[in-house]
What we know:
CATH architecture of the largest domain in chain B: Sandwich
Radius of gyration of chain A: 30 Å
Helix content of chain A: under 10%
Shape of chain B: globular
Largest sheet of chain B: 15 strands, mixed
Strand content of chain A: over 45%
Helix content of chain B: 10-25%
Number of helices of chain A: 8
Number of strands of chain A: 57
Number of helices of chain B: 4
Number of strands of chain B: 22
Number of domains of chain B: 2
Strand content of chain B: 35-45%
Oligomer: heterodimer
Largest interface: A-B, 95 and 84 residues
Amino acid sequence: MLKTTALLLLFLLLHTPLLLAQDAILQKQVELQKAEGSVEEILQELGQHGGITFSYSNSIGLERQVKLQRTKQSLQAHLAELFKGQPVAYVVRGNKIILYAVAEGKTTQAAAQKVTISGYVTDAASGEALIGATIQELASKKGVTSNQYGFYSLTLPAGEAMVAVSYIGYQTRLLPLQLHHTDTTLALALTPSSSNVQEVTVTAQIGQQLAPTGLTSIPIQQLKNVPTILGEPDIIKALTLTPGVSIGNEATTGLLVRGGGPDQNLVLLDEATVYNASHLFGFVSIFNPDALNKVDLYKGGFPARFGGRLSSVLDMTMKEGNNKELKSEASIGLISSRFNIEGPIGSENTSFMFSGRASYLSLFMLLSYLNYQAGNRRSYNNYLLYDVNGKVNHRFKDGSRLFLSVYNGDDSWRSRERSSLDEDIFKLGWGNTTATARYSRVLNPKLFYRSVLTYSQYRNGLTAKNKSSTTEFGGITSSFETQSAIRDWTMRHGLDYFITPNHQLKFGLETTQHAFQTNAMAIDVDTLTGVERPINTWEHAVYIEDEAQPFTWLKLNAGLRGSAFQVEGKTYSSLEPRLSVNFLLPHEFAIKGAYSQMRQYLHLLTTSGISLTNDIWVPATRSVAPQSARQVSAGISKSFPKLRTEVSVEAYHKTMTNLIDYRQGFNLLYSAFNSRWQDEIETGGTGEAYGLEFFLNRTEGRFTGWLAYTLAWSNRRFSSINNNQWYPANFDRRHVVSFSGNYKISSAWSLSANWMYMSGLPATLPVAVQEDTWGGKTLVYTGRNNGRMPAYHRLDVGAAYTLQTKRGRTATWNFGVYNAYNQVNPFYLEFKGKYDYSSGKSEFVGNRLVMRSLFPLIPSVNYTLRFN
Amino acid sequence: MLNKNLIINYLNKKALPKALLLLLALGALLGFTGCSKYLDYELPYLGDKLVVNGLLSPDSVVHLRVSRTLPVTGDYRTDLAITGATVSFYENDKHVEDLRDTGNGMYASPSGFKPVPGMAYSVQVAAKGFVSVQTIPETVPFPPDLGSVVLQEQIKSIYNNVYTRKLGIEIKAREEIGEFFNIDITPMYQGERIFRMIFFTDQVLQAGSPCGFRGRGSYYFSGTCFRGSSYMATFGVELEDYVSGSPNYADQLTITCRSISKSYYEHLEKGHQPEDYLMAIMEPRFVHTNVIGGYGLLAAYNEHKIILNL
């Protein structure tokens, strides 16, 4: 007994200051008028003269009489004297100090007894799973985070314990637990930090230091506050404002992460792969933020459970649906309307979520269509987009869960243009479908099983028709059509084994069957060319991931992923080691490092390196090897809890091999794609990317937002391009600066703004003019990406006004201005003729370089109504 | 059920239509109007270089043009011709003669020399103020080996509702690699060319196809796709034209079939540059040159001309 107590006290004396003295409040000098009395009386004295609130229970020995040696000293010293030799610990929360008794252990045997608490962390209001919530025992600082299903498992010594449960945007919950000798299931429900201002308030999470290098995890609500084009909340566009992430020029799709290409991002929606995340040519992403629960972007330090792409993993989880009450909201904007409805089905055990979005651009274009039909207009365009998300979640009596989720979305653009001789008809369409069935079960309090079956399909098509005008010779002339698709079926099984509080093992296996309809069909009236048979391939992977915190100052995640790819009778295989290390230093400092090897068995055939909707996914083949990458990254972070702010600086270096690139002057848009595509691309390229990222992020308070800066280089080398010399990759941007902020003026009004600056993208520019064989003049090009476009910068501003309607519902008006100072930003460069009219006639003089831009200043307004 | 009713009730109220009205009005004011900006800065210039252009054929006396490059944003009215240059002409690396300056940057054989099929020719050009250049030896091909050239049945044009017939031209490729062909078809009426549409009937050849392409109104084929065998190229040829409202039918078909050098083929294939919006999605082509130290092309061809009387 004495031995145990002595050990415990020694532990407390040695560790309590380090573990718990988190705040300068403890250094505050407090002078007491009364230095003798019961513990409770002294605490009242301290509270009164120190301006502090204490929270405690009787278990800390309130009646015990004490006499303090000094009346004036720091609060920390007072507390140390007051509880000297007592098994009492405390934790500081703002201006509040919570005191609690720690497990003393009645016998050595009892102290050795371990108890596992496990369960799900959920939102108290909606029952929605909280992914990545921290569950931490404060005295020992042992903790775990909830997994992708909200499940946690924490094993602690039997006895008393104080457990803190925290999650960004939610009030931290402190649970005094009396742990007996049996494992316990404990559901942890957290309350949003401020229900009535939940649009703004985001609370800092305990253990920000624990976040691995390369992970960007910003709450959905904060991402939704970023003003975007036409007022459409857009998670992807918001992520492009974070360090290490950039975009091509306007009207291109895909994220460009740490010097990687748009094809090197694994985008997962409920674990199903999304191959093209763009609506409206990339102006808006396909992800309806109303339907999302969690978004994590990994840029490096990839956990072994992820694989198949070189540069990033964007892991998104859909909402499960409110299992407490039926809720819905509808929103109308300039180009589209969206709605979301969720609620329980029958009981709390089953819930659903359904959201949809559709554009009404056709409505605006109706006038031009009618004019076109009446012959008063030469051209018209029509555009339609929609997407729907649905999810059903059921909890069985044995605690297992089943999720079914579906996404479907399409874009369709049609244009017709008429001249006196003919009429051109152009159609372009693309869309994604994903479906996920997930089953999870807690096999025992330390073992969590999950099984996932996913389906994903991406398709695109292009049709161009030319029709001669209605003369006596008239008739259909020619048409050209291409179609392409990729379809995946994936099966995953995984186990999460919570060995000890600071040691967790994840392992699993997965198999994907890819079917590439790499098409295409080119039809010239009745002549059909090149219908390709589908290419079927198999991709397999096994992984093991060991997450451990062997010391309070060290956290690591080590893993190994083995993958194999079968195509055309050939099998490629790969072993991909992963390691992520965090050194947790005092004063909220952390030093982080990571190493990753990645393998990608897919390529994206693209015309220009900037992703377009009609790009074609192809597999690695016998002659086109899979891409590989190695990345090393390191960083340092520092949290300022009082300011609710975190600063981080990260550096990375990435090498890539077996890259492909398009042939100079080759144009997939009009070419009849055929089985010889492998001869029409450059292969065997290498890439190198390195850079430095700075991130300052404030997550709570009236003002929230971030400032990011990236200094980066991304280069490529192909034996057949630029004489095997390194050249800047198509998406190489040297400097990227971005700011995003939201300021809540009152409960009704909030303002937001973001500004970004990006160095210009490389461009291939001519270096001279020469005469050709026929006496004409042509431009001389000597090397790829030998110049740069002008820099890109833009300011977007927004304001939100929230009000209560007469019926007591919450309504929000969102006003926004995209490109507020009307900057002409580069879309592409071209040459226009320069003419001399001095002689009275138009005389061609030469070329003038022109920068084409897409978006001028665009105002927007959006109205959202919530039905509760 | 309660919430469902509330939604329905709400939709019946006046507030939402007002909001919609405002949104629709604002939306109607907007348009996706692209804009542009002139970038009046000088592009990099690689300096003045010599440009040599010439087409060698056994049917014509050797002649070529020597000019110089111009900055990209320079004045196209500038006279680029180089006069007074020394142009040395070589056959199989042996000096034949120096070409004579005939003015305006043109240089021709003073002896009336005509290239010989199977021989390789090159030039060296030196001009004051420029780095000297030389061309990679270019072999003059033998004339194409044609099989049958047959005007076949009447077909429906894919372009116009006019009298159209199918034309088959059989090209025989030799075993050796590096044969390239060019076919040009011209319908004639009373000695005058009539401009009608000609199209592939069996195969669509686009830029990037390894078997050929269509450019500058002609058709180009790579013998690598049918080496050692023959290839029947089939075309639809519109033979009817309207002049002053009355139909005229072509009375003659002129078919020019050339064997062309690889340089010539590559130069033509990469000669077309993207323009306008294609600049956004397509990298420019690097025009093929066989002039070392400068630009331009010394190419060779050998042709058969066939006239079909209809």
